[in-house]
């Protein structure tokens, strides 16, 4: 007896004895068919599993033990299940009997125990039973016989077992055993069986079949049960197409809205990532036993995981093991704390995608096998090799026989690994269902992993299994004697002969001759007939061809900037050119291709091998870095690789990476291609892009090229952390070798240099090409430029070398370092001299572009402009688009810049810019730099805070910084630099805005003075960024200095002075000095209103600040009045949906809430949050603030579950965007801790509260009001957990400090005092509690009002204090009044009203109100 069998309770032993007696009685009844059966008891009937046997299962492989069904059960259920669906089984003595195709379910007894808590009884809603005792008492008392009834006890749940028929033939035994466990468990009223074919691509085709796979079909609504007692278990392996396209998610999400549904996964969880189910680890809590999934509260275990859409419902996904089912049982019953389970978020409104038959079509057979060897378990890989030796089409009975005979230690899950590992696909062409075949070329690769002995065992096993099959004819004889005769080949035997030819060839040795004989027979048979070109026939033909006889093919690059369209395929053997439609990437952004690209063949091949070798590790993306000197051709190699392998990817995206800000802008563009909305919050957009690529939704195959990435620490944060894509980096920095695999890009080989020169110049001799390559040092950029020059000018090599020698000497005389720059600069100076004669405007345009960044420059910058300070030739070209076009053609002619006609951009290499800079005089440099500044300033839309202008600022920013616009003498030009800094902060890149703002502030303070308006505006912008990053002390130092300078130099009424006064007030508020902040804000508002008028933008901003300050000092009614007026002004001037108007509405709702009108505030915020989401997106800072505020309003209005859901969302979004210690993240977490306490999750609430307290104390200091508020909230949780001493300590510390910092009448202090009184009451000191509450009541009535909920909470606690001191009559009289006032203020169903009526002590909480 096993340990599990010995571990029986007395009750289990009694149940077992009773069951044995019933089985004995049943067997006696079967032995005496004439006996009259007793009246059957109303018991749950256990049915055999109604699953069909596979049609192609040979009798020898079917189950050898028929299920025993007692006659009375058979009679009572004869109509329930069609008899043809009961597993057919041969007799035990049938010849050729073998082991069953599928396996029994392990751990059935442990699974039964895990489900045991569900075996509870509850009163029925519609069934009754006779109550003997009550009836007898009634008869005795009244003399009237009137029967009494009571609700019958019944099981609360029934099970709807939904079986996925996509792979039913593999799992039917495990499913049958699981069903038997459910039925014999006795925990459920009934177990109903349904079937759904999840191999359909569309949700409209997912029909529910009742009782059998071909039973009556119904729609998904068939499973809905309005009584609420049905649990749906979907049993699947996740392989069917519907799991990949999203169709299954839609149907399951539809069920989950009304009933509880869970997925039972038949595969080990290690293999789930191979299937179509996308799961995540989630903490789940069920509000009621058996509640629908839509009501399950969840919390993501990893805050970095993307939050699912609001329409998605959490669906637990379980492995068919006792521990997993035990967790599920605790969840369904609602017992105990939250349960952590792997979860599928099923969205009934999700868009469906198409099914991708082969997600890795670019892999060669060798690569596929190598990848499978890496990711599969060793037994699975060994099994794959054995199955490759199977000489018949792969069907489940054959595969199972091979597995159980040749490799008996393997499990069914190992076979599942083979089926899911990308080696085998279902053969849709065959007429026999359930047939699989290896993908093209894989049999040969896998056979090389098998020993000859194992291959022979497989052949014998199949021959024994199918002795009369055409496929196994002569097979045993061939194994015994390879030289034995081969039966005549027929068209019917041709596919089998092809398989045998491949297998015998792999066995080699004496079997190689037999392989050659079979091949000759195949050739003779097919010589005079044409094979139908089916996919399977072609596949087998390719497999059978010897590797050395296959013709190599080279896929040439795609011949267009757009990779879609035609792919050219060259067959080297016949030199014929073929065309086929390419599989173009769906998202493509790569620079134009260089059609003169030469050489680097070995490097490209090695790069491809290294990148694709990472495909074996789908959870990690290993970057490849191309590094080398400037001009060496790194970017050209990357461009060529992208075009060469374009059809391997769904997304190919080029990311210029010199500046992190530019990387962010490119990610925003990529987000649009991935269908990710631009919320205006750049960091959240970037996080969403990285998560999309990691998860492979909507595109699995992607290539990101980070070009010219100088600093690894700046670029690595943008890398996706996983997924099935590739990352390629180009850099001049050798330090990439420490964080990536690196490939050094060196000079051209001499043959590559000569090849490029002669390709562009057909008449160039080897000797001349050798000389040119030698003087240019084989530098690719110089070779390319020289080739263009020779082609365009027609100059012979001797003349060019003479001209080059003169230019080289000039450069050396000028002191240019003797390195690879000399040949490059000399080569370009030859072209520059020619251009200055042919088209001076073209050269001058290049000189202006030398001061831009080495990034694409929009052609629109130069079109139809007047008054730009440039030489006359260029000025004329800027006014006339025809002359400008001619200049650009001349530039392109000599390969001096890269011009992308499709995007309308011009791009100069940094070395070209350097050469242009070196040849200009100081006067020319000053003139051309100023021209660049004016061009950029002219293109400035002058509205950096307006979202519609952000695309233009993204385009301008790298050139603004590279040209050093802050150094220009023209204030109008310099303002574009300031606008760029403002844009970065508005865009959400606070750190980038801070860095650039500090750069501007330092330069302008030193050169122009601190008192200049632009310097003061920049100081304000630096303070804004520091405050947004939570660096309040630094912000205050910057703002106070600027404010002092402004007051001294500009006066008290200057616009800059008033703005900076408000900035200082915000800093002071953030640091917790609420009274000082209010005084500053009040003074600034009064001055602005008097000088500029009430409706001026400056006055409205000052009023906004004043409202915040009033709210923080507890003057809620005054804050409400001023916020109401400001909101109305902004709505009239700016419109209802302007960002500033909605921000004021959010503030007004806070005032209304703090005034105690919770329901009104909640209703207004619901509308405001919906507008924020629609206009700005879920992750915009304003939206996050509104969501956070609505969460609190919901809780205070009595909707605790709704508040909890929004609090969790707010925390996840804040943390994902800003991190855990960001002020908004901490405030949201403080609110969530209160919501968790209200939901009864005290341990989770305390843990989170302790974390927030520590973070606040570290970032704000021990005496900040928000630290004290956190202590107040935490003390309530600790007291409710029974730790009275700790609660008293927290409250006392907060109460004393609040009185000093805020005053006794501040609402924070009053709430803390109310909770402190509750500590006294909890310790039994009702006198002390009563005295403190009386003092609080008097102040609360004066400060907040007599009917404010906080006042009423204090009054409700006084009722309990009065009872505690023995004044019961006073308590009851006061309680009636309190309940009445709660009903008027909050409604009769509000939790606070109910608590007051049930004499439950009120606990108050605090929120970290926004400071800006």
UniProtKB/TrEMBL annotation:
InterPro entries: DUF7779, NLR-like, P-loop_NTPase, SAV_2336-like_N, TPR-like_helical_dom_sf. Pfam families: DUF7779 (PF25000), TPR_10 (PF13374), TPR_12 (PF13424). Residues 529-567 are annotated as: Disordered. Transmembrane segments: none annotated. Residues 839-924 form the DUF7779 domain. PANTHER family: AAA+ ATPASE DOMAIN-CONTAINING PROTEIN-RELATED, ATP/GTP-BINDING PROTEIN-RELATED. This is NB-ARC domain-containing protein.
